[in-house]
Amino acid sequence: MSSETAEVRQILDMNAFRPGDSAEAAVDRRLANLGAASVLFYRRPIEMVEAKGAWMTAKGGTRYLDFYNNVPSVGHCHPKVVAAVSDQIARLNIHTRYVVEVVDDYLEKLKATLPAQLSNVAMTCSGSEANDLAIRIARAATGGTGVIVTETAYHGNTALVTEVSPSALKRGSLPDWVIAVPPPSAAHHGDDIADGFRASVEAALAEFAARGIRPAALLVDSIFSSDGIFADPAGFLAPAVEAIRAAGGSFIADEVQPGFARTGASFWGFGRHGLTPDMVTMGKPMGNGIPMAAVAAKPADLAAFCADTGYFNTFGGNPVAAAAGRAVLEAIEEDGLQENAARIGALLLDRLQDIAAKDGRVSGVRGAGLFIGIDLAGDSGRPDPDLTVRVIDAMRERRVLIGAAGRYGNTLKVRPPLCLTEDEAAIFAAAFEASLNA
Ligand SMILES: Cc1ncc(COP(=O)(O)O)c(C=O)c1O
Predict the structure, then answer these.
(1) What is the distance in A from the centroid of ligand 1 to the CA of 269?
(2) Cα 350 to Cα 192: distance, rounded to the nearest angstrom
(3) Picking from 162-171, 368-377, 388-397, which range would have the lowest pLDDT averaged per residue?
(4) What is the rounded end-to-end Cα distance, in angstroms, of the chain?
(5) Closest Cα partner for 204 from 178, 174, 241?
(6) Label partner for 94 (CA 20 to 30 A): which of 100, 158, 275, 345?
(7) Does ligand 1 come within 6 angstroms of the Cβ of 291?
């Protein structure tokens, strides 16, 4: 696909309400309270009141099928999570300076999903804090400072992680200790994505050497969500990870989006690449809506960081968050959600590929489990973010919620709750097909 003249889109601007769009009183109230930091979906924002499973209900009673879901991943208001949180908050909720059984119960259950050497878990409240801490640990463990990311990456909102999030920058350029490489896509690397991505990382390492900067980490979202969703071929990440390690840096897998069973074949996104990261960061679906996140690290690396700085987070890993996290892990197991993500995701991918075969504007469909990207292009084959926004709006009219990603904002991010049924997948596919021609 030729993308030369397409305009690069900033991640928070895609499909967003813009001041000046006509607003109802509730929206005005929200803007008056949050000001310029308010980010709302849709030119006509929706006021939500409740949700269950894969469905959200707006004020007035309209029900929407949620395909934007990346937080209440085991299903909105999952009864097990609701019960666990209610029970724990009625019993004890406190900062993290006492021993509380549920916290260690949770961490042992979480660690059972992770590579054995990542046996220490530092708990935080957001994915941003987790990535911030992971970069600082990587620096202490390697002695380097440089970080390699992908060119439309988003890793969070602290001062440090904003600098490694090219997609969040509205103006200015990356600092000299950050190099952004093209994502592992066929558009950039042709048939050999593994080798092309490795070569990009090696070029960045050579550039760091020329700048006199030692590398600390390769930091990537293991399904490259904001770059446009790149999952295949499985294993493509391994040569790039070898390259960063050979240069003395570490590999941080940002699992904030792909983690917790979404990609179907494995519990973590890095699983499909046959890798053991040096650190794993996680968040969003971890508490199904209760704010919680973490960094899993090797004890020696965490100790190297704590020797100089130490880390304490008042709310990170509090008992209510731990109870929520434990209920999420149990729900994934008991409801068979990883298997469901694999099965329904494969059906949906097939159906979307059928639509792509009939309509040239659907220029790419790819993904893993219930994490699928759909590229939309204009007649000339160029990325078409305007068509993408029209489809997003038309789907909203058909009561399906979805968002966009990618450098040019022309990739629909298909990311429903993991409890999605076959019927719900069919509703989505029909709404998508109809919305293309709306
Ligand atoms: C891949 C990735 N990493 C980190 C973050 C930051 O997480 P949080 O918003 O919880 O700080 C996000 C948020 O969108 C993300 O998508």
Answers:
(1) 15
(2) 24
(3) 162-171
(4) 24
(5) 178
(6) 158
(7) no
Whether 3 shows a pLDDT value over 60: the answer reads: no
Tell me which DSSP letter residue 232 carries.
-
154 touches ligand 1 (CB under 6 Å): yes
Instruction: Say if CB 297 and CB 115 are below 8 A apart.
Output: no
Q: Which residue is listed with tokens 């979805």? A: 402
Letter string b/e over residues 375-406, b meaning 16 or more CB atoms within 10 A of that residue's CB: bbbbeeebbbbebbbebbebbbebebbbbbbb
Per-residue pLDDT averaged across 229-253, rounded?
A: 98
Residue bearing tokens 């001062």: 159
Domains of the chain: 37-74+336-436 (3.90.1150.10), 79-334 (3.40.640.10)
Ligand 1 near 124 CB (within 6 A)? no
Give which of 264, 275, 271, 284 is closest to 131, Cα–Cα.
284
Q: What is the mean pLDDT of the chain?
A: 94
CA 212 / ligand 1 centre spacing (Å): 30
Q: How buried is 34 (Cβ within 10 angstroms: 0-12 exposed, 13-18 middle, 19+ buried)?
A: exposed
What's phi and psi for 233, nearest 5 deg? -75, 145
Cβ–Cβ under 8 Å, residues 132 and 122: no
